[in-house]
Design goal:
single chain; about 200 residues; alpha+beta; about 40% helix; seven-stranded antiparallel sheet
Length: about 200
């Protein structure tokens, strides 16, 4: 009786472990693994379908192989894509006030009174610069004015700034503004962007 009880106690943990390792864990882990691929990547559905035909005894090892594939074929390209926009091809907004101080005779900016009169719907021009020296002046339509910043929507399509597109939301400050288009209907007649900004010395 005692031996049978001991055998039962030792077999239950093994049974539970087997159910987790060969039953629940592979499917749960695979659901996390497929997230490494883009949402529209067909490999998401393919891997989930393949799991059902893999023998249960082989599933833990098969899933770990897919983890390696997902890390290098799915997650790594997405990381590089994100890094190229936020680090490698990073852009920043240049201060119009700073350029006005450097070139007071040739670099005009709106007055403080004009900036304070801004309202949602008015387009303003900002300077978008990259580390490699490339810069574009583009129009952003104000959609909200906070106490310390403004929020707008980009109205131009950048010519040489990756990860920045027409319609993107832009957060900026009053100091970044270099021009104001009070005639809002004139925005559609302007060029897509102005390039070759003066560089700081």
């Amino acid at each position: 009786m005692v031996t049978e009880l001991v055998d039962a106690m030792t077999s239950w943990p093994l049974l539970i472990a087997a159910l987790v390792v060969f039953g629940f864990a592979p499917g749960a882990l695979l659901r996390l693994i497929v997230l490494a691929f883009e949402r529209d990547d067909p490999r998401r559905a393919e891997l989930r379908a393949e799991l059902s035909v893999v023998p249960r005894v082989e599933r833990p090892f098969w899933v770990m192989e897919q983890l390696e594939v997902a890390l290098f074929d799915g997650l790594w390209p997405r990381f590089v894509w994100a890094a190229s926009g936020r680090v490698i091809d990073r852009w920043h907004l240049a201060s119009g006030v700073k350029f006005n101080r450097l070139y007071p005779q040739s670099f005009w900016i709106p007055s403080a009174e004009e900036k304070q009169a801004l309202r949602p719907g008015v387009p303003v021009k900002l300077m978008f610069n990259m580390r490699n020296g490339w810069g574009e002046r583009m129009w952003v339509e104000i959609v909200a004015i906070k106490r310390r910043k403004l929020i707008g929507v980009l109205h131009n399509q950048p010519m040489g700034i990756p990860r920045l597109d027409h319609g993107d939301k832009i957060h900026f400050k009053f100091d970044h503004i270099i021009d104001i288009d009070w005639d809002e209907n004139a925005l559609c007649h302007r060029a897509s962007s102005d390039v070759d900004l003066p560089q700081e010395t």
